[in-house]
Amino acid sequence: MTFSMKRVNAILQKDFKDISRNSAVSITALMPLILAFFFGKMGDVSLEVHYMVINFSMITVGSFVQCSLIAEEKEKNTLRGLMLSPASTVEILGGKSLLSLIATMIIVVIGAFFTGYQPEHIVVIAIAILFSSFFFIGLGTLLGLLAKSVMEASVIILPFMFVFGFGSMFTMFADKYPILKVIDYTPNMQLMDIAVKIESGVGLGGVWLNFGIIALWIIAVYALTVVVFKKRKMD
Q1: What is the 8-class DSSP label of residue 118?
Q2: I want to staple 99 with a disulfide (CB 3.0 to 4.6 A). Which of 15, 17, 62, 140 is the partner?
Q3: How far is Cα 161 from Cα 147, in angstroms, rounded to an integer?
Q4: Other CB atoms within 10 Å distance of the CB of residue 172
Q5: What pLDDT sits at residue 2?
Q6: What confidence score (pLDDT) does residue 129 get?
Q7: CA angle (141 as vertex; 16, 90 as ends), nearest 5
């Protein structure tokens, strides 16, 4: 079966219509901008706060919106029809992820404008954010496949929103609770570490390990997603 961009585009257009009719999801997707506007009005914004907004944007838009779209398809029993259509797994997952990816990038850029974030090396940072967003969208897809309804999706995403959206706050207690040091290896903290290194003058060659750790998370989440997707297809 050959890859068809036409089928991917058809799924994208359908998702756009679905999300435009879902006011709850649309309003939730705007929450990072409210947060960014609030912090931007406070004056000097630290790098930690810039990345709190960026990571919150990716977990809210990339993961939550994606999770809700997939869960809604399951609730309406339209996902099964899509699974049984001529579209391949890559076309379905790619098409279902494209809207979330575009929306995530738009929200991140507008949020960075509100907070006044001007990275030292914008190309490396842009690549890092785009790369990290693949993980967040994969996470949303996985949780959406596991959820039975939109309501359930909005609940199971909550722990991940805290860990991946506000992970930097938890690390402050790592000395008292050593187990929290594992948060340093999550994609959001690796993205933060890339930003810190870039601001200190380190080039792309100095952050390859951070990219490698994020890549492992991406591989893991998409491997699980494909397994769950195929299982749902067989059910």
Answers
A1: -
A2: 15
A3: 16
A4: 9
A5: 66
A6: 96
A7: 80
Query: pTM of the full predicted structure?
Result: 0.87
pLDDT tens figures, 123-170: 999 999 999 999 999 999 999 999 888 888 888 988 888 888 777 777
Contact 121, 203 (CB under 8 A): yes
Let me know: does 150 contact 68? Beta carbons within 8 Å: yes
Residues 93, 134: Cα–Cα separation, whole Å: 12
Those residues with Cβ within 8 angstroms of residue 143's Cβ, 6 or more apart along the chain or in another chain: 63, 67, 153, 156, 157, 160
Name residue 108's amino acid.
V
**CA–CA distance, 232 with 180 (Å, rounded to integer):** 34
Alpha helices (H) along the chain: 5-21, 23-29, 31-40, 47-57, 66-75, 78-83, 89-115, 122-146, 150-156, 158-165, 167-170, 187-199, 208-234
Q: Of 100, 127, 93, 133, whose CA–CA distance to 29 is shortest?
A: 100
Within 13 A of 232's CA, how many CA atoms are on the CB side? Answer: 27
Q: How many angstroms from the chain centroid is the CA of residue 20?
A: 19
Which of 153, 161, 140 has the alpha carbon at shortest distance from 71?
Answer: 153
> What's phi and psi for 84, nearest 5 deg?
-90, 0
Question: DSSP secondary structure string, 124-154?
Answer: HHHHHHHHHHHHHHHHHHHHHHH-SSHHHHH
φ, ψ (nearest 5 deg) of residue 131 = -65, -45
